[in-house]
Write a structure and sequence with these properties.
The complex is a heterodimer of chains A (about 650) and B (about 325).
Chain A lengths: L2 E6 L3 H4 L4 H8 L5 E7 L5 H13 L4 E6 L2 H14 L7 E5 L1 H5 L5 H20 L7 E4 L3 E5 L3 H12 L3 E5 L14 E2 L4 E2 H14 L3 E4 L2 E9 L2 E8 L14 H5 L5 E2 L8 E2 L2 E2 L11 E2 L5 H5 L4 H5 L12 E7 L1 E4 L3 E3 L16 E3 H8 L20 E8 L15 H15 L4 E6 L9 H10 L4 E4 L2 E7 L2 E8 L4 E7 L1 E6 L1 E3 L3 H8 L26 E3 L9 H18 L4 E4 L4 E3 L9 H5 L5 E6 L2 E6 L9 H5 L5 E3 L4 H11 L3
Parallel strand pairs in A: 1-2, 1-3, 3-4, 6-7, 6-18, 7-10, 18-29, 20-27, 21-22, 21-27, 22-23
Antiparallel strand pairs in A: 5-30, 8-9, 11-12, 12-17, 13-14, 15-16, 19-28, 24-25, 25-26, 31-34, 32-33
Helix pairs in contact in A: 2-6, 3-4, 6-19, 7-8, 7-16, 12-13, 13-14
Chain B lengths: L1 H14 L5 E6 L8 E5 L30 E5 L1 H12 L8 E6 L7 H7 L6 E7 L2 E6 L2 E6 L21 E3 L15 H6 L3 H14 L5 H5 L25 H14 L9 H5 L7 H15 L29
Parallel strand pairs in B: 1-3, 3-4, 4-8
Antiparallel strand pairs in B: 1-2, 5-6, 6-7
Classes of the chains: A alpha/beta (about 650), B alpha/beta (about 325).
The complex binds flavin-adenine dinucleotide and iron/sulfur cluster (4 copies).
């Protein structure tokens, strides 16, 4: 083998603390290295041309570039060697920038280390083999999980792009949190008026299949060829017959059912349509509250339903959908503030969450848009808003900022003044974070035009006092204690990962952070991708996001899927594992550790053997470390290659 | 103990028609240790032995007999190996019949041979009361059973075999023994890194690389495919150097990490008497600390290193 080594200066990034000429000289002593040189910018056009020229002139079979991280330029140089006529896998990169020049000042030590890293790369390259990618066909259908505003946008954009879309939502209606909001910042336009038409579009688009009251049961397969099982939970109503007239709900005697859609402010019936604009506009029964399903007698809805749609015997149904890509848009849930003793721990009826307040403000809410105290139905005069409840608090494991609470609190003070001109709003805040377009102006308006009194500081206690509440806190700007009497307290509860988010991630084999938010492929360059091919993210499932950002991500995820589906076949990565039939003893240890389900146990001449499904394998290498005798090897990272690297570094 | 042996024989006789083979113990050549017995016909049953000389863990034969209907006689500690094999799905529960025993300790043949002061060539030995009476080329001597027990018996956590299809005799607590000998691990932990390295260099210098330890290990299921003898991948070479031998032992230890039940077969088999189970014990401690897991106790559990989890309960990668 003829190996060429190129040691990059990266301007002064590397050459500043590494003697690149000496490294190139040292490389000439390594086995099979026939050519070595230093180069100013290996990735630049002249740099790449130099590599191609050397490959041809010295009849190189493999190339080592010592420069930056492979994350940066591995793909670049693989294309370079390919243009020079070599197989793209006959290339190795030694990272002498992030791993050497940027982290050490001692030039001699750096030069030594760089030379050793080149040595390692040479030893690995000597054992590289030519690899070629395979091809496989893809199914151009897409599944969107979660029908909040982000999922709705993604589904509509995909459908408009001509794709068949399956939208899966676990609640009876799509719409997500936005369907519960009254008005939206920073324009204060009506939430249902802008979201409603989008929801109707979903129902009417012939390319979209909608499953509500449904959850993903399991996911098999890989990019281009996923098999997703969806559990359609029993609604106890035949939706092909239900016309959404609402007669059933009017007659249901179980009128004290907790109202999920209205955030448990107010009651509803056991059978209901969650809100007037619900999509699909179909009734469903809350089994825990239904007298027929719990006690075996009632059936008022059966008599009331003109379509004969009620079916107490309905059971969950599992449907399997084949799709080529999945967009996850499962949103967020709200922090449970009752763990804070200082806010009453849930004991005071007039200490409510911001989302409950949205329902009080909403004309379609339980009070028809009149702001009334839950305890006595009276209009409040003084209202205290407390920000950062369950955000930016390390002590409860929520160190992050929920992003939208400053803005919606300002919105709520404005709406409060519109509803109750005599009222006074007070806002306790830590900092104001309003970096969006028109956002800071919006906060200013709340303060200056709507007279909201902003107090920088935390609240230490809320105490009931003569039918009102005494809120004790500090004003850190003035450096003194404050006490405010109020009729109603609204807690700006922070966002947390949607319930069940980690479990869904495990089914989808995507990663999530400590809080349960899904991990994007790269924080800057791959915001809507995941590290699992074919699975994309949109909206606040990736981290708290307001509506404009959620919608933008919905569109971005859709465009990624459309891009993926613009090809009929995908190339499979050849850096995958494979099993040596002679050595495999069929112990299935590889199978048990594979995070991607890429290993099947098969029969070969009466013996059990492992077999890797190349298109599913992500090349993580877990199996190779679990296999006791090395029967399963990851191409391009074989045990022998790694051992050769170790021996290069630790000779004896 | 006589009646327990008779009950065992009866149980085996009754079960034998439905089984392809039953693995038990029979008298060994010198009377110091019993050897494995593979029962396929009724007449074999008369040979069965059960007393403290049944030291060998028979579970290691099970994976090789997969597909057959096998009966096996097991002490409390042997059953942990069976459980581990079941956990790893290397054997099938339906195919297996376990004759479980309550054990009062098993003898260490090495230790006995060293203690016997009546010559090297043992002619016969028999157990009588609390003693092992030995007749050798040069005369006769007696050894107290308690002094000749295996080191593991001093740390026994369950003398009754579990899992078990037929329990023979009375259930009971582990033997109550005084003066547990200090383990090699205890001694090593008191040493500095350099001393430990020196210790292993010396020990490994004596290893003859016979692979008896590996062959005796009930969990070394690769056997002929062992990575120690392969060039593809080429983890260890054949150089006669402590380095390569240590590498082989490190491999055995890592491959049994979180699986080893500390049955001691590896050490018992070693012709040179090297304390190689120590490495596995050290790793088991780590596994216990990291995963709160001990091998071979619960056939429903998946061993921690044979599963993939996003986050481990006991490992906090992130401090916030
Ligand atoms: C009180 C309050 C007021 C707000 N006001 C504003 C505002 O004025 N302007 C603004 O821009 N933003 C506002 N926001 C933020 C806004 O709610 C979010 O930006 C927006 O809802 C994010 O949309 P999403 O689709 O990402 O998530 P969501 O709205 O949470 O939608 C996620 C959907 O996925 C479904 N789902 C979850 N898990 C699963 C699963 N496993 N399977 C199937 N389906 C699942 C959920 O049921 C839900 O329908 C406010 C937030 C709060 C709390
Ligand atoms: S490398 Fe092994 S463990 Fe990783 S995905 Fe491929 S088959 Fe699974
Ligand atoms: S771990 Fe190794 S030996 Fe066991 S089944 Fe997998 S490839 Fe075969
Ligand atoms: S490594 Fe030794 S002690 Fe552990 S299971 Fe194997 S033989 Fe028994
Ligand atoms: S049994 Fe003893 S001598 Fe033989 S390979 Fe194992 S440690 Fe070495």
């Amino acid at each position: 083998m003829n190996i060429g080594v190129f040691v990059c200066h990266c301007g002064s990034n590397i050459a500043g603390t590494v003697d690149t000429v000496a490294v190139a000289k040292a490389a000439l002593a390594y086995p099979e290295v026939v050519f070595a040189t230093d180069t100013m910018y290996a990735c630049s056009e002249p740099g790449q041309a130099g590599i191609i020229e050397a490959v041809q002139k010295y009849e190189l079979d493999g190339v080592v570039v010592a420069s930056c991280t492979p994350r940066m330029h591995e793909a670049t140089f693989r294309r370079t060697v390919e243009r020079a006529g070599l197989n793209r896998y006959m290339f190795e990169m030694a990272n002498i920038r992030e791993h050497v020049s940027w982290i050490g000042k001692d030039k001699d030590a750096n030069t030594n280390k760089a030379a050793e890293l080149v040595h390692i790369a040479v030893e690995k390259l000597r054992r590289n083999t030519e690899l070629t990618a395979g091809e496989f066909t893809i199914n151009k259908r897409v599944m969107v999980i979660g029908g909040g505003v982000a999922g709705i946008q993604a589904a509509l954009d995909c459908a408009d792009g001509g794709l068949e879309v399956v939208l899966v939502e676990r609640e009876p209606s799509i719409g997500g949190k936005m369907s519960k909001l009254d008005k939206t910042f920073p324009t204060v336009d009506c939430s249902s008026c802008i979201l409603g038409p989008r929801m109707v579009d979903i129902a009417q688009n012939p390319n979209i299949t909608l499953y509500t009251l449904s959850e993903v049961e399991s996911v098999d397969g890989f990019v281009g060829n996923f098999d997703v099982k969806v559990r359609r939970k029993a609604a106890y109503v035949d939706w092909t017959l239900c016309t959404g007239c609402g007669e059933c709900a009017a007659k249901c005697p179980s009128k004290k059912t907790p109202d999920r859609f209205n955030e448990f402010i107010g009651k509803t019936t056991a059978i209901n349509i969650p809100f007037p604009q619900a999509i699909p506009k179909k009734a469903s029964i809350n089994a825990a509250a239904c007298l027929m399903l719990t006690k075996g007698k009632c059936g008022a809805c059966v008599k009331a339903c003109p379509a004969g749609a009620i079916q107490f015997k309905q059971e969950d149904e599992i449907v399997t959908e084949q799709v080529g890509a999945v967009i996850v848009a499962t949103g967020y849930d709200l922090f449970d503030f009752t763990q804070y003793g200082e806010y009453g721990g849930g004991r005071y009826p007039d200490v409510i969450t911001s989302m409950q307040y949205e329902r009080l403000l909403s004309a379609s809410g339980p009070t028809e848009g009149h702001i009334k105290r839950p305890s006595d139905g009276k209009e409040p005069k003084d209202i205290v808003f407390i920000q950062c409840v369950g955000s930016r608090d390390k002590s409860i494991g929520r160190p992050y900022c929920s992003g939208f609470c400053c803005m919606y609190t300002a919105k709520q003070t404005i709406l409060t003044k519109d509803h109750l001109p005599e009222s006074q709003s007070y806002v306790f805040y830590m900092d104001i974070r309003s970096p969006g377009k028109g956002y800071d102006e919006f906060i200013r308006r709340a303060m200056e035009e709507y007279g909201a009194r902003y107090i920088r500081g935390r609240v230490s206690a809320i105490q009931p006092k003569n039918g009102r509440y005494l809120i004790k806190g500090v004003n850190t700007l003035m450096g003194d204690q404050v006490e405010i009497e109020a009729d109603l307290v609204v807690l700006a509860v922070g966002a947390e990962a949607a319930k069940g988010a980690p479990q869904l991630a495990e089914k989808l084999r995507i990663s999530y952070d400590t809080y349960g938010f899904y991990m994007e492929g790269h924080p800057k360059l791959k915001p809507v991708e995941t590290n699992t091919a074919g699975i994309y993210l949109a909206g606040s499932c990736q981290g708290p996001k307001d509506i404009p950002s959620s919608v933008a991500q919905g569109g971005a995820a859709a465009s990624k899927v459309l891009g993926l589906f613009s090809k009929d076949k995908l190339a499979s990565d050849p850096q995958v594992s494979s099993v040596s039939l002679q050595r495999c003893i069929g112990c299935a240890k590889c199978q048990s550790v594979c995070p991607f389900g890429a290993i099947e146990m098969t029969q070969f001449r009466g013996m059990t053997k492992a077999s890797v499904i190349a298109t599913v394998c992500q090349g993580c290498g877990n199996c190779t470390s679990a296999c006791p005798q090395g029967a399963i090897q990851l191409s391009h990272f074989t045990d022998n290659q790694i051992l050769a690297e170790v021996h290069a570094l630790c000779p004896y | 103990m006589g009646s327990q042996l008779e009950d065992l024989k009866t149980a085996i006789r009754q079960a034998l028609p439905d089984l392809d083979v039953v693995i038990a113990w029979a008298a060994g050549p010198d009377g110091l240790a019993h050897t494995p017995l593979f029962i396929t016909s009724e007449s074999d049953v008369d040979l069965v032995q059960w007393d403290p000389r049944c030291s060998q863990n028979l579970a290691g034969y099970l994976p090789g007999l997969r597909g057959k209907k096998v009966g096996i006689v097991a002490k409390g500690c042997d059953a942990r190996s069976i459980t581990e094999l079941l956990q790893e799905k290397l054997i099938d529960r339906e195919q297996l019949t376990v004759f479980g025993l309550h054990c009062q300790g098993a003898l260490d043949p090495e230790k006995i041979a060293a203690m016997a002061d009546c010559g090297r060539y043992v002619r016969s030995a028999e157990i009588n009361g609390g003693e092992l009476k030995i007749v050798s080329s040069k005369g006769a001597c007696a050894i107290s059973l308690e002094n000749g027990l295996l080191a593991k018996c001093f740390r026994c956590t369950g003398a009754d075999a579990q899992p078990c299809d037929q329990f023979i005799g009375e259930h009971g607590a582990p033997p109550v023994l005084k003066d547990a000998p200090a383990t090699t691990l205890d001694r090593l932990e008191a040493m500095s890194m350099e001393e430990r390295f020196q210790f292993w260099e010396e020990q490994m210098g004596q290893c003859i690389r016979c692979y008896a330890c590996r062959s005796a290990c009930p969990l070394c299921v690769c056997q002929d495919h062992c990575a120690a003898q392969s060039r593809e991948p080429h983890w260890v070479d054949q150089t006669d150097h402590p380095r390569e031998k240590l590498m082989f032992q490190a491999m055995h230890a890592l491959h049994t990490a979180g699986r080893c039940t500390e049955c001691g077969e590896c050490e018992r088999a070693c012709p040179v008497g090297l304390p190689i189970m120590t490495m596995k014990q050290a790793l088991n401690r780590q596994i216990k600390a990291l995963f709160d897991y001990e091998a071979g106790l619960d056939s429903e559990k998946t061993p921690p290193l044979f599963q993939f989890r996003e986050n481990e309960e006991h490992i906090k990668e992130r401090k916030w």
